[in-house]
Amino acid sequence: MIDRVDVNSVLMQMRQVKEQIRAQHAPDVQETGGDRKISASERLAQQVQQMSEVSGDNTVPDFQSMFKNAIDNVNEAQKTAGSLATRFEQGDPSVDLPEVMIALQKSSVSFQAMTQVRNKLVEAYKDIMNMPV
Predict the structure, then answer these.
(1) Residue 110: other Cβ atoms inside 10 A
(2) Residue 89: which domain range?
């Protein structure tokens, strides 16, 4: 399975960025924080401090390995669906038609999704190559 960044740390960072943007666009209004009032700039400084203390999984896999894993998963789904279909056609009693149809649909959907990702990557590459330097 693909290694993924800790979802909770990503969500927390997204919330902090949202709060930073909100604080930048809002005037320096006094907000209550417990028994004393803190300004938006002080709150922003606290959030930056908390953000630096977040301990998440910093080992993000590179794009090449993620894309290779995705292609391998699609290939495996297609092989599984093909073997189930062959076994069903040969009359294997342990293989049900719904199982074969579900496997075929999963492989079809995963292949279509991978094709769309590839198309977006090629389009992004073309856009980057056409940018003036």
Answers:
(1) 19
(2) 63-129
Per the domain annotation, does 96 fall within a domain? yes
Q: How far apart are CA 77 and CA 66, in angstroms?
A: 17
Residues 70 and 37 reside in one and the same domain = no
Q: What is the pTM of this model?
A: 0.51
User: Residue 16's pLDDT band (boundaries 50, 70, 90)?
Assistant: confident
Virtual torsion, Cα 90, 92, 98, 101, nearest 10 deg:
-40
Q: What is the pLDDT of residue 108?
A: 94
Cα–Cα nearest to 8, from 62, 49, 46, 54: 54
Residue 119 and residue 91 share a domain:
yes
**Is there a domain that residue 20 lies in?**
yes
Spacing of C-alpha 108 from chain mean position: 21
